[in-house]
Target: Imidazole glycerol phosphate synthase subunit HisF
Amino acid sequence: MQAKRIIPCLDVDDGRVVKGVKFKGIQDAGDPVELARRYNDDGADELTFLDIGASYKSRATLLDVVRQVAAEVFIPLCVGGGIRTVEDMREAMNAGADKVSVCTSALQNPALLTEMARAYGSQCVVLSIDAKRVEHSGSEKPKWNAYSHGGREDTGIDAVEWAIKAVELGAGEILLNSIDADGTGAGYNLELTRAILAAVPVPVIASGGAGTLDQIANVLLPPGEQGGDQWGNADAALVASLLHFGKTTIPEIKKYAESKGVCVRW
Model:
Protein backbone atom coordinates (compact mmCIF):
# COMPACT_ATOMS: atom_id res chain seq x y z
CA MET A 1 0.00 0.00 0.00
CA GLN A 2 1.38 3.39 -1.00
CA ALA A 3 2.07 5.69 1.94
CA LYS A 4 -0.07 8.82 2.18
CA ARG A 5 1.68 12.16 2.55
CA ILE A 6 1.22 14.92 5.13
CA ILE A 7 2.19 18.25 3.59
CA PRO A 8 2.35 21.51 5.58
CA CYS A 9 1.34 24.50 3.46
CA LEU A 10 3.01 27.85 3.99
CA ASP A 11 1.13 30.74 2.39
CA VAL A 12 3.82 33.41 2.19
CA ASP A 13 3.19 37.16 1.83
CA ASP A 14 5.91 39.78 2.21
CA GLY A 15 8.25 37.22 3.75
CA ARG A 16 5.82 35.95 6.41
CA VAL A 17 3.53 32.94 6.65
CA VAL A 18 -0.13 34.01 6.75
CA LYS A 19 -3.51 32.24 6.96
CA GLY A 20 -7.11 33.22 6.36
CA VAL A 21 -10.61 31.75 6.09
CA LYS A 22 -12.07 31.11 2.62
CA PHE A 23 -9.13 33.10 1.21
CA LYS A 24 -10.05 36.16 3.34
CA GLY A 25 -9.22 37.61 6.77
CA ILE A 26 -5.47 37.07 6.44
CA GLN A 27 -3.44 36.97 9.68
CA ASP A 28 0.22 36.44 10.49
CA ALA A 29 1.24 32.84 11.29
CA GLY A 30 5.00 33.01 11.70
CA ASP A 31 8.43 32.95 10.08
CA PRO A 32 8.56 30.62 7.05
CA VAL A 33 12.13 29.43 7.62
CA GLU A 34 11.50 28.59 11.28
CA LEU A 35 8.25 26.78 10.44
CA ALA A 36 9.85 24.88 7.57
CA ARG A 37 12.69 23.74 9.81
CA ARG A 38 10.23 22.56 12.46
CA TYR A 39 8.06 20.66 10.00
CA ASN A 40 11.10 19.03 8.41
CA ASP A 41 12.33 17.87 11.82
CA ASP A 42 8.83 16.65 12.75
CA GLY A 43 8.61 14.35 9.74
CA ALA A 44 6.67 16.25 7.07
CA ASP A 45 6.71 14.40 3.75
CA GLU A 46 6.86 17.59 1.67
CA LEU A 47 6.51 21.35 2.02
CA THR A 48 4.37 23.61 -0.13
CA PHE A 49 5.10 27.34 -0.43
CA LEU A 50 2.44 29.53 -2.01
CA ASP A 51 3.07 33.18 -2.83
CA ILE A 52 -0.36 34.67 -2.17
CA GLY A 53 0.74 38.11 -3.38
CA ALA A 54 1.70 36.63 -6.76
CA SER A 55 3.48 39.78 -7.95
CA TYR A 56 7.04 39.90 -9.24
CA LYS A 57 8.21 41.53 -5.99
CA SER A 58 6.46 39.01 -3.74
CA ARG A 59 7.69 36.07 -5.82
CA ALA A 60 11.27 37.32 -5.49
CA THR A 61 10.79 37.47 -1.71
CA LEU A 62 9.37 33.94 -1.73
CA LEU A 63 12.31 32.60 -3.73
CA ASP A 64 14.70 34.05 -1.15
CA VAL A 65 12.77 32.09 1.48
CA VAL A 66 12.94 28.94 -0.65
CA ARG A 67 16.72 29.29 -0.99
CA GLN A 68 17.09 29.58 2.78
CA VAL A 69 14.82 26.60 3.38
CA ALA A 70 16.38 24.42 0.67
CA ALA A 71 19.74 24.83 2.40
CA GLU A 72 18.35 23.39 5.63
CA VAL A 73 15.66 20.83 4.89
CA PHE A 74 15.77 17.55 3.03
CA ILE A 75 12.23 16.95 1.83
CA PRO A 76 10.59 17.93 -1.49
CA LEU A 77 9.60 21.57 -1.89
CA CYS A 78 6.74 22.76 -4.07
CA VAL A 79 6.53 26.46 -4.95
CA GLY A 80 3.48 28.20 -6.37
CA GLY A 81 1.98 31.64 -6.93
CA GLY A 82 2.96 34.00 -9.72
CA ILE A 83 4.51 31.28 -11.90
CA ARG A 84 3.50 32.45 -15.36
CA THR A 85 6.23 31.17 -17.69
CA VAL A 86 8.78 28.39 -18.03
CA GLU A 87 11.40 30.97 -17.06
CA ASP A 88 9.52 31.60 -13.80
CA MET A 89 9.54 27.85 -13.24
CA ARG A 90 13.28 27.74 -13.95
CA GLU A 91 13.92 30.44 -11.34
CA ALA A 92 11.92 28.49 -8.75
CA MET A 93 13.72 25.24 -9.54
CA ASN A 94 17.10 26.96 -9.39
CA ALA A 95 16.15 28.39 -5.99
CA GLY A 96 15.61 24.88 -4.64
CA ALA A 97 12.07 23.88 -5.60
CA ASP A 98 11.51 20.28 -6.64
CA LYS A 99 8.24 21.11 -8.39
CA VAL A 100 6.03 24.12 -9.04
CA SER A 101 2.32 24.78 -8.72
CA VAL A 102 0.29 26.86 -11.19
CA CYS A 103 -3.33 27.98 -11.09
CA THR A 104 -4.39 31.23 -12.79
CA SER A 105 -1.61 31.15 -15.39
CA ALA A 106 -2.64 27.65 -16.51
CA LEU A 107 -6.30 28.68 -16.77
CA GLN A 108 -5.29 31.64 -18.92
CA ASN A 109 -2.79 29.65 -20.99
CA PRO A 110 -3.35 25.87 -20.78
CA ALA A 111 -0.42 25.27 -23.15
CA LEU A 112 1.86 26.39 -20.32
CA LEU A 113 1.35 22.98 -18.69
CA THR A 114 2.75 21.25 -21.76
CA GLU A 115 5.69 23.64 -21.99
CA MET A 116 6.56 23.07 -18.33
CA ALA A 117 6.23 19.29 -18.61
CA ARG A 118 8.52 19.26 -21.64
CA ALA A 119 11.08 21.38 -19.83
CA TYR A 120 11.19 19.52 -16.50
CA GLY A 121 8.89 16.49 -16.70
CA SER A 122 5.26 16.16 -15.64
CA GLN A 123 6.32 15.04 -12.15
CA CYS A 124 7.45 18.65 -11.56
CA VAL A 125 4.16 20.22 -12.71
CA VAL A 126 1.40 20.58 -10.12
CA LEU A 127 -1.95 22.01 -11.18
CA SER A 128 -3.57 23.94 -8.34
CA ILE A 129 -7.36 24.05 -8.63
CA ASP A 130 -9.24 26.54 -6.46
CA ALA A 131 -12.72 25.03 -6.65
CA LYS A 132 -16.04 26.33 -5.37
CA ARG A 133 -19.46 24.73 -5.54
CA VAL A 134 -21.89 26.51 -7.84
CA GLU A 135 -25.62 26.29 -8.43
CA HIS A 136 -26.68 24.74 -11.71
CA SER A 137 -29.76 23.30 -13.32
CA GLY A 138 -30.44 20.13 -15.23
CA SER A 139 -28.71 17.63 -12.94
CA GLU A 140 -28.74 16.55 -9.34
CA LYS A 141 -24.98 16.02 -9.38
CA PRO A 142 -22.92 18.70 -7.60
CA LYS A 143 -20.86 21.07 -9.73
CA TRP A 144 -17.71 22.96 -8.87
CA ASN A 145 -16.11 25.71 -10.91
CA ALA A 146 -12.42 26.53 -11.07
CA TYR A 147 -11.66 30.00 -9.73
CA SER A 148 -8.67 32.17 -10.64
CA HIS A 149 -6.79 35.10 -9.08
CA GLY A 150 -6.61 33.68 -5.58
CA GLY A 151 -10.19 32.45 -5.55
CA ARG A 152 -11.65 35.82 -6.51
CA GLU A 153 -12.84 35.20 -10.07
CA ASP A 154 -15.19 32.46 -11.28
CA THR A 155 -13.89 31.24 -14.64
CA GLY A 156 -17.08 29.29 -15.37
CA ILE A 157 -14.89 26.25 -16.11
CA ASP A 158 -16.00 22.97 -14.56
CA ALA A 159 -13.30 21.94 -12.08
CA VAL A 160 -13.50 18.21 -12.87
CA GLU A 161 -13.33 18.79 -16.62
CA TRP A 162 -10.41 21.17 -16.10
CA ALA A 163 -8.52 18.56 -14.09
CA ILE A 164 -8.95 16.01 -16.89
CA LYS A 165 -7.75 18.44 -19.55
CA ALA A 166 -4.81 19.62 -17.46
CA VAL A 167 -3.52 16.08 -16.93
CA GLU A 168 -3.78 15.44 -20.67
CA LEU A 169 -1.69 18.58 -21.23
CA GLY A 170 1.06 17.55 -18.83
CA ALA A 171 0.11 18.14 -15.18
CA GLY A 172 1.51 15.35 -13.04
CA GLU A 173 -0.33 16.11 -9.81
CA ILE A 174 -3.43 18.01 -8.66
CA LEU A 175 -3.45 20.32 -5.63
CA LEU A 176 -7.17 20.55 -4.91
CA ASN A 177 -8.21 23.57 -2.85
CA SER A 178 -11.81 23.78 -1.67
CA ILE A 179 -12.68 27.47 -1.31
CA ASP A 180 -15.85 26.54 0.56
CA ALA A 181 -13.87 24.67 3.23
CA ASP A 182 -10.64 26.71 3.35
CA GLY A 183 -9.66 27.69 6.88
CA THR A 184 -13.05 26.76 8.35
CA GLY A 185 -11.93 23.71 10.31
CA ALA A 186 -15.11 21.97 9.17
CA GLY A 187 -13.27 19.25 7.28
CA TYR A 188 -12.08 18.62 3.75
CA ASN A 189 -14.58 18.54 0.91
CA LEU A 190 -14.68 14.76 0.53
CA GLU A 191 -17.26 14.80 -2.26
CA LEU A 192 -15.11 17.13 -4.38
CA THR A 193 -11.99 15.12 -3.59
CA ARG A 194 -13.57 11.86 -4.71
CA ALA A 195 -14.92 13.46 -7.90
CA ILE A 196 -11.45 14.64 -8.95
CA LEU A 197 -9.80 11.35 -7.97
CA ALA A 198 -12.29 9.42 -10.08
CA ALA A 199 -11.53 11.60 -13.09
CA VAL A 200 -7.72 11.64 -13.23
CA PRO A 201 -4.91 9.04 -12.99
CA VAL A 202 -2.44 11.31 -11.16
CA PRO A 203 -1.97 11.94 -7.41
CA VAL A 204 -4.42 14.35 -5.77
CA ILE A 205 -3.54 16.49 -2.74
CA ALA A 206 -6.59 17.50 -0.68
CA SER A 207 -6.51 21.03 0.70
CA GLY A 208 -8.83 23.25 2.71
CA GLY A 209 -10.79 22.67 5.89
CA ALA A 210 -8.68 20.50 8.19
CA GLY A 211 -9.91 21.07 11.75
CA THR A 212 -9.43 17.72 13.50
CA LEU A 213 -7.22 14.66 13.29
CA ASP A 214 -10.26 12.61 12.31
CA GLN A 215 -10.89 14.84 9.29
CA ILE A 216 -7.31 14.41 8.10
CA ALA A 217 -7.55 10.63 8.45
CA ASN A 218 -10.89 10.59 6.63
CA VAL A 219 -9.62 12.43 3.55
CA LEU A 220 -6.80 9.88 3.24
CA LEU A 221 -8.80 6.72 3.96
CA PRO A 222 -9.62 4.46 1.01
CA PRO A 223 -13.24 3.30 0.56
CA GLY A 224 -14.19 0.36 2.72
CA GLU A 225 -12.13 1.44 5.71
CA GLN A 226 -15.10 3.34 7.14
CA GLY A 227 -18.83 3.29 6.51
CA GLY A 228 -20.85 5.96 4.76
CA ASP A 229 -19.14 8.78 2.89
CA GLN A 230 -16.47 9.51 5.51
CA TRP A 231 -13.52 8.77 3.24
CA GLY A 232 -11.64 10.66 0.57
CA ASN A 233 -8.78 8.43 -0.61
CA ALA A 234 -6.59 11.44 -1.42
CA ASP A 235 -2.91 10.74 -1.98
CA ALA A 236 -1.90 13.51 0.41
CA ALA A 237 -3.39 16.02 2.85
CA LEU A 238 -2.34 19.65 2.95
CA VAL A 239 -2.42 21.08 6.47
CA ALA A 240 -1.91 24.70 7.52
CA SER A 241 -3.79 26.34 10.43
CA LEU A 242 -3.74 23.26 12.68
CA LEU A 243 0.05 23.18 12.50
CA HIS A 244 0.85 26.90 12.34
CA PHE A 245 -1.16 27.73 15.45
CA GLY A 246 0.08 24.77 17.50
CA LYS A 247 -3.16 22.78 17.62
CA THR A 248 -1.40 19.57 16.61
CA THR A 249 1.89 18.24 15.24
CA ILE A 250 2.87 16.09 12.30
CA PRO A 251 3.76 13.09 14.52
CA GLU A 252 0.31 13.34 16.15
CA ILE A 253 -1.38 13.48 12.74
CA LYS A 254 0.52 10.44 11.47
CA LYS A 255 0.00 8.43 14.63
CA TYR A 256 -3.75 9.05 14.58
CA ALA A 257 -4.09 8.42 10.85
CA GLU A 258 -2.19 5.16 11.19
CA SER A 259 -4.51 4.08 14.02
CA LYS A 260 -7.43 4.56 11.60
CA GLY A 261 -5.85 2.36 8.94
CA VAL A 262 -4.00 4.97 6.85
CA CYS A 263 -0.56 3.94 5.60
CA VAL A 264 1.87 6.74 6.51
CA ARG A 265 5.61 7.22 6.14
CA TRP A 266 7.67 7.50 9.34
In short: The radius of gyration is 17 Å. The mean pLDDT is 90.
